Every structure is written in C-alpha cells, then in structure tokens.
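Q: Structure tokens for this one, please.
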Amino acid sequence: MPTSPVLSINVGSSYVSFLLFEEGREFATFTYPYVYSKNLFGHFISESSFYLDVLKIAAKALKVTAKDCTLLISGFPEPPHVEADVKLSASIDKILATFSQYSCLYVGNFKFLEAHSFMYACPITTQELDKMNSDANLSLYPQITQLDELKRFDIDSVARVHRSQLPDILDTHKPVVFTGCSFCNFSEQLSPLSYILALDLIREHGTFELKLDEHNVLPNLGLINMYDGNLLANVSDYKLTSLGTILNLPGTVECLFESDYGTSQLIDVAKDKLFFVPLEEGSTARIVAKNSLTGTIEKTVTGGKLGFIIDTRDKSGVQDYSSKKYAPWLKSLKEVLEGLYVYSNA
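A: Here is the predicted structure, written as tokens:
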C-alpha cells in the first residue's frame, strides 16, 4: 500500500476536479473552473503544459507537492496526456462501471454516460443559426456556464434525447446517482434546470432513490479505488446529497402516503404532472400506489431535498422538449426548492 498521498484528477466538461487522499485523514478537494480548449489556448500552450500548470495550482491549494503524490487522472472520451508520472489513467465510463452499488448517470456539455453506453455529440443539422452559434461558442469555451435558461435547456436536451433511445438500464434496488459537470454545485444553489434534467433521465417505471454528487467527487473516488481497492475502506461512505425518492409512473396515479409520524394522506395525481410531497432526509414513509399500467406498488420510501416525488409524465420515446411545455413543471420545482411544497394538482 503506498504511503505517499494520492492525488486524483478528473477532467470534466467544464471543470477540473481534484481529490487528495492521505491515510488517516479526510480527503480534500479542489476545483479549477477551466478545461483545456485547443482553439482557445492552443496558440500559446499545449494540453500537457496547461494541465501541469493547473496541477501546480491545485497542489498549492491542497498544501502538497505534486511530485510527492501518486498521480491518477481521468477524462472522457479519454483522459488527457500529461507529461508527468501518472500511475493510472482511465476514461470516466470505465470508472462508472465499477460502482456496483449505484446506477450512475453522468452528464456534461453534450455528454451522457452510464455504465454500459455513452453519447458525445452535438447535432447541428436542424438547429437554428443562433443555437448553432451558441453551441459552437460552448465548444470553444467549455468553461462557460450557460445562464440563459432556454439555451441551457437545449444543451441538456441532448442528454434527454440520448437517454430516450436506451433500453431500461436502471435497477429499482440501487440508488441512482447523478454526477458530472451538469450537476455540480459550485455556487450557493444548483440550478433548478439541473434537477429537472435529473428527473427526466428516470424513464423506467417504479420507485427509485435519487442521490446527487454535487461536487463531482465520485469519478475521483472510483479512480482511486481502481488504483488500489484497499485505500478506501468503503467508497459509499462518501456522503452524496439525498434528493429523495421518485415514483415514476405515466398516467393517473392514486397514492396512499403514510409518514413515520402516523399521518396519512390519499393523493390523486393526474397524468403529465410533477407532484412533490415533503419528506426530509433521514425520514421514511410507506406508500401504496395504484396505476393502470403497473397495478399496485407497496414500498417504503426515503426522503431528501426534493422529498417524495410522483412523476406521471410519459417519457417513452423522444418527447417534446420545449421550454414552454416544461414551464409548469419547472415552476413547481422552483417552489419546492424555495421551501414552498406543492399540495395541489394545479
């Protein structure tokens, strides 16, 4: 077992995430808000030199010397070549496949990955000129955070379309973890668009526990575990953000919700709705849900940031991903994030 600190580097779509692991100490993280762009930086610095400079910045922030660390690096579709003594490099899709306890969904700009498939594309054949320019700029300047909701929604919908073309990949017995730059929370509050994207990616019918990797730590933890499985006693000890549990059933749903406190309510949710029931992290509830498609589902569900979510939207095939259609769902979600839980089907 190595005695030197292990410094894992994950080159994402928009950020470079570092994780420092030293035996006997809690791991430390650092994030650099730029990735290499040949069009932007290629005339004065190579990719290798760029990431070596970023490594020096990260090492200084983490109060270590890079040459004294065991270096690991990941990226997609392949990790960048860095002229340093890198002990292990791996693509992110291979890392995700090591998490047998989770169903991991990774989303970045024009990227969607899970354990058995990936998409890395930016279709432009049917795009309007303004959108083509926006996507081209994002390709040139990948560190840009798109603040315009409509443009951000369009970028995220690339992942929605790819997800719609996949067979059932999620296991109701495993928590679904959302990771990647689209779900990173480096500001005070994650964009509501990130949460709505997460819910859209759940297409299988049934109940699913949802978790969020807000600081994009999971790829680095997985890479360290690939390098030496004895270093991390239990990767699942890392505390992911609990979003709650989603009941994903298209069509009308009738649900009996019984809380730990002995209260109960009967909830009728019409088709094509998003409905949120307060259920805080650490709490559980018993549900009995009826739906014409699946019959009766009885289960104990766990709470989280979004509570218990009943999603009756039809997600089969490629849907209408227009911002106009999403407006009422996004409004309900924003109310939840502001602490105003919705109790009606309006």
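A few notes: Residues 122-129, 340-346 have pLDDT under 50 and may be disordered. The radius of gyration is 21 Å.
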